[in-house]
Amino acid sequence: MIVQILMILTGLYLTVNSCIMAVYSNFTIGIITELALGLLLFMWGVFYSHIKMYTDKGVKRIIKIIIACGIAAAFAVCAFFGLYGVNDSVGYNEDAVIVLGCAVRGTEPTQPLAARLDAAVKYHEKNPDAYIIVSGGQGPQEYITEAECMKAYLIAHGVNESVILTEDRAASTTENIRYSREIMKEKGIPETDIAMITNEFHIFRARQLARLNGLEVTTLHAKTPWYSSPMMYLREIFAVGQLILLGK
Fold first, then answer.
1. 131 pairs with which residues across the strands?
2. What is the torsional sign of CA 123, 106, 138, 162?
3. What is the CA 215 to chain-centroid distance, rounded?
4. Which residues lie below 8 Å from residue 129, measured CB to CB, with a gap of 6+?
5. Bridge partners of residue 162, in order along the sequence
6. Is pTM beyond 0.70 here?
7. Which residues contact 185 (CB under 8 A, 6 or more apart)?
8. 112, 118, 119, 122 alpha-carbon torsion, rounded to 10°
9. I need a surface site. Which of 15, 129, 137, 202 has the fewest CB within 10 A?
């Protein structure tokens, strides 16, 4: 009974949260994954006794082991992302800081992106001479490019426009890094002291991709809102899997 109730409540939470995030954020693979997992757990919980009744004991044991191992692995990986991501390494003496783009809702930054920009504002207060490269193109449900939105937000929060550089073509983290490097070369910015700002769940992958593209960076994390964490962390598991398998 306890297992059944936990499955129903967890499934209900994930389902409702994914629907809310679909309204207040852009519809992404993370939302789809969270919704699918929520519905699966909810329906499994509702029909738990029927499934148990008509399932062979050996099969049930195998299913339980697989589910337990999957959940444990997911929690372990997410915990690693979180702990790795909050370990900031910036020295506040870098020549430039790259702020990685994230979803824009119409013309306004979503909460994860706003958190990255708030971190950039605080960085600017400690190192006002560093260039801030805002990186992100225009995706579905976005009326302007992420870079344009990010620049407007930074200026509105007191950042000197003269230090803001915009990269408005990128559609992935790899492109964020690649195109930002092109801008640094055009501006003659040394690549030896570069910082990167993104949410804590994203730091590990972003740093690995920077290294794959020949760029060593220090990092500063932005805190992910609790209500969008399930979606973001689930999505990141698949994204890191893609990085391991495809190198991008």
1. 96
2. negative
3. 20
4. 163
5. none
6. yes
7. none
8. -170
9. 129
pLDDT in the model for residue 242: 80
CB–CB of 154/117 below 8 Å?
yes
Structure tokens at 90: 């910036």
Evaluated on CA atoms 57, 58, 63, 64, the torsion sign reads: positive
- The distance from CA 245 to its chain's CA centroid, rounded to whole angstroms, is 19
Beta bridge partners of 198: 221
Q: What region does 74 belong to: left with phi over 0, alpha with psi -120 to 50, or beta?
A: alpha
Task: Give Cβ neighbours of residue 181 (< 8 Å, ≥ 6 apart).
Answer: 191, 213, 214, 215
pLDDT of 161-216, one tens digit each?
Answer: 999 999 999 988 999 999 999 999 999 999 989 999 999 999 999 999 999 999 99
3-state secondary structure of 162: helix
Measured in residues, the chain has a length of: 248
Report the Cα 216 to chain-centroid distance in Å.
Answer: 20
Could you tell me if 107 and 26 are in contact, meaning their C-beta atoms sit under 8 angstroms apart? no
**Helices within the chain (DSSP H only):** 2-24, 29-46, 48-53, 57-85, 111-126, 146-156, 173-187, 200-212, 229-246
Question: What are residue 196's DSSP bridge partners?
Answer: 98, 219
Q: How far apart are CA 36 and CA 42, in angstroms?
A: 10
